[in-house]
Design goal:
The protein is mainly β. Helix content is 3%, strand content 48%. The chain has one helix at residues 26-29, and strands at 4-8, 10-13, 18-24, 33-39, 46-52, 57-60, 68-73, 78-83, 92-99, 121-124, 128-133. Strands 2, 4, 5, 6, 9, 10 and 11 form a seven-stranded mixed β-sheet that branches. It is globular and about 45 Å long.
Length: 134
C-alpha cells in the first residue's frame, strides 16, 4: 500500500525548533513533488515547503524562507522539514504530501508553490500537531 508516514512535531516555545519526518514508499517518492502543508484551525491547508525528489530543487513560502529547510534522504525515501524560530501563529497541523503523478514528474516546475497546491496532491501523511506557545 502506498503511503506516507510522518513523525516528529510536538510543542515548543516561541523561537524554538522542531523537525518533521515523512517516510514514503519508493513508488511515491521517486521523481515526484513532495512537500509540507500547514493547516491552522479553521483554515485551509497551505504549502510551506516543497521539493522535487528528482533533483532536490526546493521551494519555500515567503513566510518561512530562511527559517524552514526541506531536505531529502533518498536511500530512505524520506523527506524532512527542519523548522526554526517558530512563532505562535504557526501553530497547526502539518501534513506531508506527495504529488499525484509519481515517477512521471520530469522537472521541478510542478513542485513550485504556485503549482503544487492541494488539488495536485495524491498522497497525504496522517498529520502531526505543532504547537508553539508564547
Amino acid at each position: 500500500q502506498e503511503q506516507l508516514v510522518q513523525s516528529g512535531g510536538g510543542s515548543v516555545q516561541a523561537g524554538g525548533s522542531l523537525r518533521l519526518s515523512c517516510g514514503a514508499s519508493r513508488n511515491i517518492y521517486l521523481r515526484n513533488c513532495m512537500g509540507w502543508f500547514r493547516q491552522a484551525p479553521g483554515q485551509e491547508r497551505e504549502l510551506v515547503a516543497a521539493v522535487y525528489t528528482g533533483g532536490a530543487v526546493t521551494y519555500y513560502d515567503d513566510s518561512v524562507t530562511g527559517r524552514f529547510f526541506i531536505s531529502l534522504d533518498t536511500p530512505k525515501f524520506t523527506v524532512y522539514l527542519q523548522m526554526s524560530n517558530l512563532s505562535p501563529g504557526e501553530t497547526g497541523m502539518f501534513y506531508c504530501a506527495a504529488g499525484k503523478s509519481p515517477g512521471a514528474v520530469a522537472s521541478s516546475r510542478p513542485c513550485r508553490g504556485e503549482e503544487f497546491g492541494v488539488s495536485e496532491v495524491g498522497y497525504w501523511g496522517q498529520g502531526t500537531q505543532v504547537t508553539v506557545s508564547s
